[in-house]
Amino acid sequence: MFDIFLERLHQGYRTLDYPNKLPPMSPRFRGLPVLADVDCGDCRLCTENCPSGAVCRNGRGIQLDMGKCLFCGACAHICPKKAVTFTTEHRLAVYRREDLILVSGQERKIHDSVRDLRFFRRSLKLREVSAGGCNACEADTNVLGTLSYDLGHFGIDFVASPRHADGLVVTGPVTENMRLALIDTWAAVPEPKVVIAVGACAISGGLFADGGDGCLGVGAHIPVDVFVPGCPPNPWTILDGLLCAGRKKPFGFDPARK
Q: What does the mean pLDDT of the chain come to?
C-alpha cells in the first residue's frame, strides 16, 4: 500500500486544467482550416480530390464545409497556391450548422471556452447514441472518462437511460435501421434537452451521405444544438463541444421554469 502512495506522488497531477489551460496539440494534428484569400483561377484540384465534397468554388476562391470535411488534408496537400492550411486549433464546435462553412479570406472567430456554464451549470447528463457509426467517434467520446480529460470533474457524465439524461450525444450518419431508435431515444429525454452531433457523419452523413440508406446526419431527424466537426474529432474537440452544450439554452427551454 505504501508503494502505491509513493507511485501516486511520483506520477503527480495528470488532469489538465482545461479550459483555463489549453492542451498542447501534436503538430501532426489537423484542426481548424484556414482559407487564404487567393485567386484560384480555373484550378479545380482541391474540389476534384476532396473525398466528401467538402470543398467547392466560391467566386475567385473556395469554401470549405467543416461539417463534411474528413480533415484528411488532401486539399492542402494538392493545392499549388496553398489556399488551404490546417492549424492545430482544436476548438471547432459551433451552435449553427452554417457556421461550419468557411470562405476564402474570411477569418473565423474562435469562441471563448472559459465562460461559465449557463443552464446546466452544475450537472449535464448525456445519453450517447451510436447511429450507425464506425466506432471512431465512439472511441474518442469513451476516452473522455480517462485521467487526462476527467469528464466528471466538469459535472458531465454519460448515463445508461435517456430518461435520466439532459440530452443526447449522437455519432454516426443515422442509418435507416437507427432512425426510429434515435427519434424514440430523443423523445424519451425530458425537456429541456440538448443534442450534440459529433463527427462529420452525424453532422452531414459524411462519406455515407450519398449511400442511399438515408444517412443524412442527425439534423434531418431531430433538432441539433451543438455541432462538433471532425472524422473523428479529437477528444479535446469533443470536450469543448460538450462544454458548449452546457452553455447553450437547450431545446424546450422555458425561462419561467428556470
A: 86
